[in-house]
What does this fold into?
Amino acid sequence: MSHQYYLSKDTMWKATISCDATYDGVFFYAVKTTGIFCRPSCKSRIPNDENVSFFGSADEAQKAGYRPCKRCRPDLCVSKYDPLTFILEDTICLIKNNYIQNLSLDDIASNVGVSRFHLNRIFKERIGCTPRMYLEKFRVNKAKELLLTTQFNSTQIGYQIGYQSISSFYSAFKRNTGFSPNQFRTLHVRNCSNQK
It folds into this structure.
């Protein structure tokens, strides 16, 4: 039997309007007017109490015809849901899988379902840099790998890792490593031969 049935409607309503995370996983609430169900901790707008139904599980809410909220993701089987963690993971995954594309901050933000301002802010708080800086670092690391493992020249590598212009590739590489791509390759080749 679900814990939800041991709670009064009043207790669940109070937990809902106070966004009380201690009730996450204990019950879910659904809003008739939107057709969406949420965790008690969801930060979405407080609904009118006459439009709210309570459920003991996400399955019950879905069987009743409600869709999971995109903000609090009540369909995920985690007891404590931190939406920022999932936004960051989705952003990093998107960057790693699409770094050769011409990705703008708007593209990244709309793909993960948040505003560019919000994404920039949480990325800086949690990762220490913006998504664009993260993309640049990821591309430069790929370039370093290609410089040391292939015979491609710097121009070929720049285009292969998603840069539209070679000057922007050179600038990004120098900003992140302190060297031009050719200096980096020469230095590492020399270091390897000195160690033999």
User: Anything to note?
Assistant: The longest helix spans residues 131-149. The radius of gyration is 24 Å. The beta strands are 28-31, 36-38, 52-55, 67-68. Residues 1-5 have pLDDT under 50 and may be disordered.
